[in-house]
Every structure is written in structure tokens, then in C-alpha cells.
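Input sequence (162 aa), recorded before submission:
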Amino acid sequence: MSILDAPLARLDGTPGTLRDLTGGQPALLVNVASKCGLTPQYTALEALHDELSSQGLAVVGLPCNQFGGQEPGTADEIAEFCSATYGVTFPLSEKIEVNGPGRHAVYEGLVDTQDEGGESGDVRWNFEKFVIDADGTPVARFSPQVTPDDERVRAALRSVLA
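Predicted structure, C-alpha cell format:
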């Protein structure tokens, strides 16, 4: 089964799959949190969404509260924060776990992907980024400190949009 077929509700609770959130397009998947020092990356994520959605890229935020309890809010609180603070219009999923025994099926299919330093396995922190192709195959992984507008991320996105 492709990670695209994993059950994954939208933040508002609408049932679906990752495929529903990506529209079957290549995507940048990011575990997000509202109270993290990296939260300002929402600005660059929204800019990528604005710039590349017309070229067939989906940006998807996957809220997670596993790192320092930095996504403690309800779905409504997360939606309000993202909209009011960062103008987020890209889709957000329900809050999920990315590590441990409750790891969501989407991340089961992502964590074996190596980043540029050869690191794979558990997600290290909020805002770790995965680029997948239209079939749901992971093609790149970037550490939380690599910003969404970094040229390395943009190059990986170009590779799946080509």
C-alpha cells in the first residue's frame, strides 16, 4: 500500500487519505507545530504553496505534539493560529504521531528515507521535511533546520515536478 492510501483526516475531521490532501500530486510533507522556535517556517511553506501549487505541488502540514508539547491545541485552535498568524491556506491534517508505537502509517513509509547527512529513522523535531513524488515515493528528506525555501529543498521539489 502506498502512503497516499493511508487513512488521514483533514484538520477539520473530514475523513480521507494522504492522497486526498495532496490531490495525487507531488508533495512537501512537514510535521508542524504552533509553539516551536521553527514555527516561522510556516511563512516559507505558504510561499511555496502560493508559488508552486499551480505547477502541481502540494504542501501538506501534519500537526504533531510529540516534540516538547509544542502543538497542544485543538484542531480549531491550530486552524485559527495558522490562518490568523501565517495566512496558511495549504491543507493541514489531523494531529498525528510521527514516532513511537503510535507512529502514523504515513510516517511508517517515510522514516527510512535518508537526509543529506545519511540520517534516517525517527523524526528528530518539528518541521522535518519530506518530498514525495506523485506515487507517494519519498525522494528527499530535510532536517528541521533546513528552511522550506532553501535551494536544496527547491531542487528536490523541481525534480518531482519535472
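Checked by second reader. The first strand starts at residue 27 and ends at 32.
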